[in-house]
Amino acid sequence: MEEFLDKLPQMDLMRSEKMTLVQLIIPVESAHRSITYLGELGLLQFRDLNADKSPFQRTFANQVKRCGEMSRKLRFFKDQIDKAGLRCSPRLEIEPDIALGDLERQLADHEHEVLEMNSNSEKLRQTYNELLEFKIVLEKASGFLVSSNTHAIGEEIELHESTYSNNGFIETASLLEQEMNPGLSNQSGLRFISGIINKDKLLKFERMLFRATRGNMLFNQTTSDEEIMDPSTSEMVEKVVFVVFFSGEQARTKILKICEAFGANCYPVPEDTTKQRQLTREVLSRLSDLEATLDAGTRHRNNALNSVGYSLTNWITTVRREKAVYDTLNMLNFDVTKKCLVGEGWCPTFAKTQIHEVLQRATFDSSSQVGVIFHVMQAVESPPTYFRTNKLTNAFQEIIDAYGVARYQEANPAVYSVVTYPFLFAVMFGDWGHGLCLLLGALYLLARERKLSTQKLGSFMEMLFGGRYVILLMALFSIYCGLIYNEFFSVPFHIFGGSAYKCRDTTCSDAYTVGLIKYRDPYPFGVDPSWRGSRTELPYLNSLKMKMSILLGIAQMNLGLILSFFNARFFGSSLDIRYQFIPQMIFLNSLFGYLSLLIIIKWCTGSQADLYHVMIYMFLSPTEELGENELFWGQRPLQIVLLLLAFIAVPWMLFPKPFALRKIHMERFQGRTYGVLVSSEVDLDVEPDSARGGGHHEEEFNFSEIFVHQLIHSIEFVLGSVSNTASYLRLWALSLAHSELSTVFYEKVLLLAWGYENILIRLIGVAVFAFATAFILLMMETLSAFLHALRLHWVEFMGKFFNGDGYKFKPFSFALISDDDE
């Protein structure tokens, strides 16, 4: 047996890759290039030898800080390009490698240029908005002033026209800060202040003016025709032009303070219409000049951003790689001479030659006089777990890793989950019509695989795309199980020929199966379509699916126990084989394996035996005659033997192993043997670190702790055998629910609507049926079956052999750098 097992070919996915702990001694002058080449190879996981130091205490902290600053600048450029609405495609030609210092200077120059242009553009935009507000105030306030002239306001408003001279508006003081001096009316003594304010502040503003002047003011306002950008906040807001007439210097001071408090922008408007027209022309002229200047500035800024955008992708990649290199260098230690860096890491055993060649090439390319020393170390701690996967197996491996990463070189459930996972899903989802819909979705994802793999997808779409092969297999198995159930959107078809039964009399349509007579060979594949619509359809399908669920569950749990044997054999733990695997197999199969055998015999013989009665009285009255429930000769004594074996298996898995471990420990302690206690022999999950280590078990032996742990483990298995078997009945329950829902939607929605002659009712019925099928059966039921299949694998199957306390192999690789690593 041992020779046969040794001759079996090894599977890459069955056990994780063999890992080797290596040490690198790298000269300082070739350190950067060596780490860069290792990042391109991506097969070495470095250990952090400076874990006790903070990030700021490490050797290359300044370089990491510089890379972080450059990343900030690159994000700034990307934000600016996005805000400008530019689409900058990277250059197709390969750009030469650029030194980090040169790139840092380039980024600093570009940032300074863009910031300066942004500042100038902001000032110009603020001035432009002020002039725009001034123009609107001149247009709207003139009507109020014409009205006031009819009341004989005689004195003109004194204007500082020097502010609006042709020397250049940009160099003058801000219009918001200009001194307001409207002057006095010779006849009435009235003065006025004109300006513009946000519409949502108008009511409170008017009330405050009224209270501050005790009602001694006249407030006029009119809404602007369009939204205006506020010069202070650069936001588009609705504004209102106002003119406040008042009398007295004290009132003027109060009104100006209130305007400032409410953010109202005040502008001087002359009373004389001639001066108003002249000032309006000047404002319009300056607006035109500023608009041309802003357009020219925007074009210049876009050109500068375009020149940055062409190289932005390459720069981002370069900075990320450099930061990753220096982060890795910070995990290395200087030797005592400060001339070499010492690093340690894990690599797959098959990659040692590749790593050695890469280090030699780095030494040659850096013109170093001393080569990199590369040698293998003796490992004490547990190595990381690494599986080489492809596009199909990767999704299933991720499903397993979501529960727990496999312990180093223990049996990998993903190998079997590639088949069992989609199959158990299909048992619950089985309908070949719905399976075809899933298949179309999977084929769409596969057809666009190359395009979607290069795009940045949303979280939901990314999850679907990552599981495209899982969906494909689930769809194929659903079609297979749907053909077995003979259900196409709940409708049976005579795909494989006619039914094996025919009606015996006119009451056949409402009869039980005894009302049918068999006149040809059994239906060749799947459920006979004659069961559809009969009174015994539901009892028959329930019995079929329930028994099938038990058979599948017992088979998968036995597979889990067999894998526990291969784990124990691989790790050399004979105690686990003798005192764990064997009694567990005996207990499980003495009870539930026997039940599976009875189910198969009953199917093959067509017996009417009640299996509930057989299993219950196997415990209550094992010596009682079975009578009509006897399925084969010698069944009663066989049941007694199996019951005794099940009772013997419980103390067998409970007592011997703790005492055997105690004996081994005592012999070692008394010096009778000089062998060490290998961790695999005491792998009881009491100390996972020591159990994974593969080294010496140096912890103090605590017999009571080990015994209690074994007691818990034994009770868990005994009770779990019952509960796990019952848990597999979810295969029957969900399959029944899916079938019944599909039948309800077909009969009570589609057929009911199709019975009407009204075309509108038919269309509504088809729409409701399509909606219910898509969102309930194809989305909710798919998710439900997916999660239940997940539970069956994580708990019922993997719980029999899987430890899941390993850690993933995460090599230093440029290909694995993501946006979050900046």
From TrEMBL:
Principal localisation: membrane
Keywords on record: Coiled coil, Hydrogen ion transport, Ion transport, Membrane, Transmembrane, Transmembrane helix, Transport
GO MF annotation terms: ATPase binding; proton-transporting ATPase activity, rotational mechanism
Domain of life: Eukaryota
Pfam families assigned: V_ATPase_I (PF01496)
Location in or out of the cell: Membrane
InterPro entries reported in the protein's UniProt record: V-ATPase_116kDa_su, V-type_ATPase_116kDa_su_euka
Membrane topology classification: Multi-pass membrane protein
Gene Ontology terms: biological process: vacuolar acidification
Coiled-coil portions: 100-127
GO CC terms in record: proton-transporting V-type ATPase, V0 domain; vacuolar proton-transporting V-type ATPase complex
Keyword ATP-binding tagged: no
Transmembrane segments: 423-446, 467-485, 548-566, 586-603, 638-655, 759-780
Similarity remark: Belongs to the V-ATPase 116 kDa subunit family.
Biological role: Essential component of the vacuolar proton pump (V-ATPase), a multimeric enzyme that catalyzes the translocation of protons across the membranes. Required for assembly and activity of the V-ATPase.
Designated name of the protein: V-type proton ATPase subunit a
Organism in which the protein naturally occurs: Arabidopsis suecica
Source organism phylogeny: Eukaryota, Viridiplantae, Streptophyta, Embryophyta, Tracheophyta
